[in-house]
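F.,

This is the one I mentioned.
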């Protein structure tokens, strides 16, 4: 599947017009390049919003499972993800109990993309590590934000992970599980 730039721009404009937080263009370009290089098959996204990053995450044909707490955002995300041809499931709910449930169900992902409430990143940390396959990746947005400081320290200090900080905007991290 190729990303339709016109469609992605439509989603971006909708997000801007409705004050929905999405990743900025430089991060989107970096994420797309990462997805094209690594081609993850099973992807978990924490924080769907209206599907902008989900379209990118699923752009190489991988299956996207995404968690969102807002019914309004889910409606739009469903529409935009379908239009993009993304294979997906949206889970309605809070990422903290939902990731715990996925761990209990024994789910594993090639990539976990963390982009929801920064102040709650630490609450899903161990679940994210448990959910990612060996040699899989955890990518975290807003890693240089004040609310992400403790999470960033966990990532960089965890011997189970090799973490690199990407200095684009307010930062991203990419961690590979050993």
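My design for it:
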């Amino acid at each position: 599947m190729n990303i339709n730039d016109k469609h992605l721009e439509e989603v971006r404009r909708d997000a801007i017009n409705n004050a929905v937080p999405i990743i900025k263009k430089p991060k989107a370009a970096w994420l797309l390049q990462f997805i094209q290089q690594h081609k993850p098959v099973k992807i978990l996204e924490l924080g769907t919003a209206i599907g902008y990053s989900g379209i990118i995450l699923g752009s190489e044909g991988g299956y996207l499972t995404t968690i969102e707490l807002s019914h309004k955002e889910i409606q739009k995300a469903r529409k935009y993800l379908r239009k993009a041809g993304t294979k997906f499931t949206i889970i309605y709910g809070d990422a903290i109990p939902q990731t715990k449930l996925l761990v209990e169900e024994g789910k594993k992902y090639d990539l976990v993309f963390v982009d929801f409430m920064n102040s709650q990143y630490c609450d899903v940390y161990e679940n994210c590590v448990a959910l990612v396959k060996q040699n899989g990746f955890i990518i975290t947005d807003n890693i240089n934000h004040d609310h992400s400081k403790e999470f960033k320290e966990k990532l960089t200090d965890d011997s189970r992970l090799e973490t690199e900080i990407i200095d684009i905007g307010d930062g991203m991290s990419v961690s590979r599980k050993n």
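The chain is about 45% helix and 25% strand.

Talk soon.
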